[in-house]
C-alpha cells in the first residue's frame, strides 16, 4: 500500500513554521503541488526560502482567522495538513484569548472551508496536552484527563469540532496528537521556545541549561521525520482500509466506535516514538552529541529551577493505534533523531 503523498494538491497551514516547513519540503520532493497558508506570527521566511522558486510551491500570506484566506487556500485541494496554531502551554496561560481565537476560531474556519471544498481528508495537529492530568501511562487515545491549560483546551475542542463536522458534513478528519516534536528548523529563540532547541542553543553558547524542576520529568520526544510519516499515512490510508482495521482494533479493546454511521472517518492518533526520556537524560545526550563538535561543552554544568505551571510530570504514548490502523512505524528513536538534529543545529547555530 502507498505510504507517501504524491502527485496531489496539498495545503499546509502553518507551512512557514517548524513542522509545516518540513512537511512542505518533503511534499515538494514527492512531486506534489503545495500551498502554504501562514501569517508568519511564529513562522519565518527563512524556513521556506528554499521552496519559493519552485513552481509547485505557492505561499498565501494570510490568516486562518480570515475565512476568505482559508477558502483561497483549499480551492481544488486533495488534502489539508493543518498545522497553523499558536503553540506553547505558557503562551496560552499568558494570553488565553489569542490562543483561543487562533486555535479554535481559526481551526473551525479552516475545517469549514475544507468541508465546503470537499477535500479528501483534513489532517490536523492535535496535541498530547489533551491528556491533561490523566495519570494513565502509556497514554491511549480514548482515555484523557482534565485539561491543565488554555492551549490544551483549544486542542481538545478542535477534536470535538472535527468529529462533529465529520458527522454533519461528511468530511474525513484525522487528528494527530503530537508528543514533544523536535528536529531541524525548530526555533530556539524567544520565551516560548521548545526545550530541545533552547538547550542546544544554550550549550553552543557555553551557557548552563536551566531545567525546570529536578529533571525527573519525562517526555516521549518525537523526531520530525516520524511526524512527517504519520501525516502522510493519515492523509492517504484508504477509507475502507481504515474502517475495516478500526472495527478489529475497537473490538479487541472493547472500545465503542467513534464513527456514528461507520462510513465517515474521524479519528485521533498519538504520534510519538513510544519511549520516555527524562530531562536530565535529555541534556546529557545533548552534551554528549555537541561535545563531538566542541569538546568544552562536556564541562558545562546543568542548573535546576522551580517546576513550571501547567507541566505534567510524565508523558509516554501508546502508539499501537497508529501502528495498527495506519501502519505507522516510527523510524527514529530519540537518540537517532537527536544525532541528526544536533548536527543540523551545529551547522546552523554555531
Ligand atoms: N512542536 C511540538 O512539539 C508540538 C506538539 C504538539 C502539537 N503541536 C502542534 O503542531 C502544530 C505546528 O507546531 P510547530 O511546532 O511547527 O509550531 P510553529 O510555531 O513553528 O508553527 C506554527 C505556524 O503557524 C503559523 N500561524 C500561527 N497562527 C496563524 C494564523 N492565525 N494564521 C496563519 N498561520 C498561523 C505560524 O506563523 C507558524 O508558521 C501546531 O498546531 C502545534 O500546536 C506541536
Automatic annotation (TrEMBL):
SUPFAM superfamilies per the UniProt record, alphabetical: NAD(P)-binding Rossmann-fold domains (SSF51735)
Q: Which InterPro entries match?
A: Epimerase_deHydtase (IPR001509), Lipid_A_modif_metabolic_enz (IPR050177), NAD(P)-bd_dom_sf (IPR036291)
- Which ranges carry the NAD-dependent epimerase/dehydratase domain? 10-236
Annotated protein name in UniProt = Vi polysaccharide biosynthesis protein VipB/TviC
Which organism is the protein's source?
Labilibaculum antarcticum
Amino acid at each position: 500500500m502507498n505510504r507517501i503523498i504524491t502527485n496531489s494538491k496539498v495545503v499546509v497551514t502553518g507551512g512557514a513554521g517548524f513542522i509545516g516547513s518540513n512537511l512542505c519540503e518533503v511534499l515538494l520532493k514527492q512531486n506534489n503541488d503545495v500551498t502554504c497558508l501562514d501569517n508568519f506570527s511564529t513562522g519565518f521566511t527563512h524556513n521556506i526560502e528554499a521552496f519559493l522558486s519552485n513552481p509547485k510551491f505557492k505561499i498565501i500570506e494570510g490568516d486562518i482567522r480570515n475565512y476568505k484566506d482559508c477558502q483561497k487556500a483549499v480551492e481544488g485541494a486533495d488534502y489539508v495538513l493543518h498545522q497553523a496554531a499558536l503553540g506553547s502551554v505558557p503562551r496560552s496561560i499568558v494570553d488565553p484569548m489569542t490562543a483561543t481565537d487562533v486555535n479554535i476560531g481559526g481551526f473551525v474556519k479552516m475545517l469549514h472551508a475544507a468541508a465546503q471544498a470537499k477535500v479528501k481528508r483534513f489532517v490536523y495537529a492535535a496535541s498530547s496536552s489533551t491528556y491533561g492530568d490523566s495519570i494513565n501511562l502509556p497514554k491511549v487515545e480514548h482515555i484523557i484527563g482534565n485539561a491543565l491549560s488554555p492551549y490544551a483546551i483549544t486542542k481538545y475542542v478542535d477534536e470535538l469540532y472535527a468529529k462533529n463536522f465529520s458527522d454533519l458534513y461528511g468530511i474525513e478528519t484525522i487528528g494527530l496528537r503530537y508528543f514533544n516534536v523536535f528536529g531541524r528548523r525548530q526555533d530556539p529563540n524567544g520565551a516560548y521556545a521548545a526545550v530541545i532547541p533552547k538547550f542546544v542553543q544554550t550549550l553552543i553558547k557555553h551557557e548552563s541549561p536551566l531545567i525546570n524542576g529536578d529533571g525527573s520529568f519525562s517526555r516521549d520526544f518525537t523526531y520530525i521525520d516520524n511526524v512527517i510519516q504519520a501525516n502522510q499515512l493519515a492523509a492517504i490510508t484508504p477509507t475502507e482500509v481504515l474502517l475495516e482495521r478500526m472495527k478489529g482494533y475497537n473490538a479487541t479493546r472493547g472500545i465503542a466506535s467513534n464513527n456514528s454511521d461507520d462510513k465517515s472517518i474521524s479519528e485521533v492518533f498519538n504520534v510519538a516514538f513510544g519511549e520516555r526520556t527524562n530531562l536530565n537524560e535529555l541534556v546529557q545526550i545533548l552534551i554528549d552529541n555537541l561535545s563531538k563538535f566542541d569538546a568544552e561543552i562536556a564541562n558545562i554544568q546543568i542548573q535546576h529551577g522551580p517546576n513550571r505551571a501547567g507541566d505534567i510530570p510524565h508523558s509516554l504514548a501508546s502508539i499501537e493505534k497508529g501502528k495498527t490502523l495506519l501502519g505507522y512505524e516510527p523510524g527514529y528513536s530519540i537518540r537517532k533523531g537527536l544525532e541528526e538534529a544536533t548536527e543540523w543545529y551545529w551547522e546552523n547555530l554555531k
